[in-house]
Amino acid sequence: MINIRSNHVLSRRAVFPVLAAMTVCIAACEKGTPTNSSPTPAPADASGSAKVKIGFIVKQPEEPWFQLEWRFADEAAAKNGFDLIKIGAADGEKTLAAIDNLAAGGAKGFVICTPDVRLGPAIVAAAGRNNLKFMSVDDQLIGADGKPIAQVAHLGISARTIGESVGKALADECKKRGWTPSEAAACVVTFEELDTAKERTDGAMTALTAAGFPADRIFKAAQKTSDVPGSFDAVNVLLTQKPDVKKWLVCGMNDSAVMGAVRAMEGRGLNAESVVGIGINGTDCIVEFEKPTPTGFFASVLLTPKRHGYETAEMVYRWVTEGKAPPMDTRTSGILIDRTNFRRVLKEQGITKE
Ligand code: FCA
Question: Which residue has the least CA distance to atom 11 on ligand 1?
Fold first, then answer.
């Protein structure tokens, strides 16, 4: 099988330290032991006092989005003088072990984007028995009743609004190109078991139909896993079912979803002329925009990884050190980027330096 998983690099300077940290972290997590989690006393800083330790657990450390969250969380740690322990946890067992190990290593709190939101009650219990303060980022924990756990502070995106902006941008580009719904169709890569993903793709479909795109020309391709291969496989099934569609609008929960679709369409000879893909994250698509020849990856909504990484880590640190609890529900927005403006916007947002 072709390897379509990618580690996209925003700038060498920006990403190399992250990759190095990730390598250590992933190696440690494989053994069930998070980085820096031995139960030895916390190292003393220059003044002789032990630094506070805060964990940052993410579900998909290979995704550029999460690498950026970590990078900004590291900046919060450097600025405030705490130690950040980065942990990649791809399943429930690793997640719960990571929480226990964080406590054993002397951590006082953590930020988490869980691999499975239904682990909510188990995560709350693990944090409680270890006396750790924590908040969720990106993906909101779900309780036993199937509803978000409102007692856990959360920072996530305004998923429906952002999805709607994707749908509107797709409809605008469709009109600009003069594509008629009889020749074009929309491929919506879905991952509906995750609320934030469903809200994004529902929002996109609502905006597409509101702009006059016929609902019966919108086709869902359900991802089994929320990564590039998961989307690639799902979209290949759809393309096999719809061989007559030669012009595609594409959206999904994030850049990886659109990337998998674009790669699958390329496999059938569909390219930038016939595919308009618009992602969400604005981080994992940079490699596409940097290619000299345009691909079907047309645009993306750039989210705010700095807010998601820096602010959450700092909020938990303040909670631990000053007793100031984070706001219960914070929602962030995004900016549409494409090949024409991405360098400027990434720089303005502090994501790239040059
Ligand atoms: C989810 C997705 C990520 C990112 C984040 C804000 O966790 O998996 O790619 O979009 O929400």
Answer: 138
